[in-house]
Specification:
Blueprint (H helix, E strand, L loop, with lengths): L12 H26 L5 H8 L3 H13 L3 E3 L6 E3 L1 H12 L3 H16 L3 E6 L4 E7 L21 H9 L7 H4 L2 H10 L2 E4 L6 E9 L5 E10 L10 H16 L13
Antiparallel strand pairs: 1-2, 3-4, 3-7, 5-6, 6-7
Helix pairs in contact: 1-2, 1-3, 2-3, 5-9, 6-8
Length: 262
Amino acid sequence: MRSTGTGQDETGTEAGSEQRSIQSVVIGFRLIAALEAAGGPAPLKELAAAAGMPPSRAHAYLASLRAVGLVTQDGDGGRYDLGPRALSLGLAALGRLDVRDAALDAMRRFRDETGESVHLSVWSGQSPVIVARLDGRRNVSLAIRLGFALPLDRSASGRVFLAFLPEAEATEAGRNMRPAIEAARRSGIAITDGLLNAGFAAISVPVFNHAGDLAAALTTLGAAGHLDIAPDGRTAAQLRLAGQAASAALGYGLGRGQPAAR
């Protein structure tokens, strides 16, 4: 059989089959998207209407999606819902989100709106380590180095980790700072003034991942007397919003995960 020069034979069978396969993926995803938008189990007719196809066609596609675990059905002729395979794919995608990339937009907004510097720290196994920073408009003489390990007891970032890490991760320093840690846990914010570096103050908030576990701490640092460290002040409020935005970018709230109780 002769080639037409367009990547298919005279009947168009190969290219036509490929095109049908691509269309099948698109149509199948329309049904998955309809299930997602439904917010819970939904009947065939409702899903078919949302996906813009006859119920008979939707039924055939849903049967294939059931076969691979992307969709479940409650008994014969019952409602459809997202299946375990859809959940595992979603969790796999969330688990691959990089905390630094997820937090950068929130960090930029905080810096642009307040003019203050901000840095992100993650848990190294023993202490928080700075992995990203953005300088503010003010010239802060204290250098914030990437890779710097922050002390748990004398830094605002450290106190956030002591407050929200599992109990098994706590150190003797944490056990000796119960009141401060409990206050940080209740308020969702840690503030230090001159503890780590004389003449400098810091505010830190937690960043949670999709499972509700602590993923990082967002911290702003500035000269004492210039940085507004009031817990209900504008800077603290903006930092809380940044922490919430970074958490949302990591999927926090999608799986209804909440910080683990201590």
